[in-house]
Amino acid sequence: MNMYDSIGEKIKLLAKLLAWITSGGFVVWGIILLDTNKSDGAIQGILLLLLGPLFSWMFTWLMYGFGELIQNTENILLRLPPPVQTPDNVFEPTQGTPDTIRHITGASYVPSNDLANKLTALESWKNELEEEYNIKKTDLLQELNRYEL
Asked: How many CB atoms lie within 10 A of CB 43?
């Protein structure tokens, strides 16, 4: 196990340990101050006995919350689908003709074959993404139907 694996859990464990150790330290320190013969020491000891563990506990909330935040972020990242990659050649010339572009856009004039090819490539990319979208949507709906039954 690597030192940096599941760091969120380690931060949360450290927060719990620090809460117990510092609370115990404040209690011991408060008892020592109570045991002194000075009147100021008794007041400080009582305050330390009451407020020390409380402040220690509240401080470690922040640390524990940070560990929880890291752990939840890791879980979210594991559940995300991989990002959609656009093809590098989406604007590369293809076999599109001005007639095809006129059909797609309804334009009566296409300025150049290069632009026509780019528009054809873009249209084919759109169709591929729509097919992928429909497949994933169908899979999710089927999975949803399994849970509802």
From this structure: 12
Q: For residue 129, give its domain range.
A: 98-148
Tens-of-pLDDT digits for all 149 residues of the chain? Answer: 677 788 899 999 999 999 999 999 999 998 888 888 777 778 888 888 899 999 999 999 999 999 999 999 988 888 887 776 665 655 555 555 555 555 555 555 545 566 777 777 888 888 888 888 888 888 888 888 887 65
Q: Tally the domains of the chain.
A: 2
Would you say residue 86 lies in a domain?
no
pTM tops 0.70: no
CA-to-CA separations, 146 to 118, 134, 139, 143, in angstroms, rounded: 42, 18, 11, 5
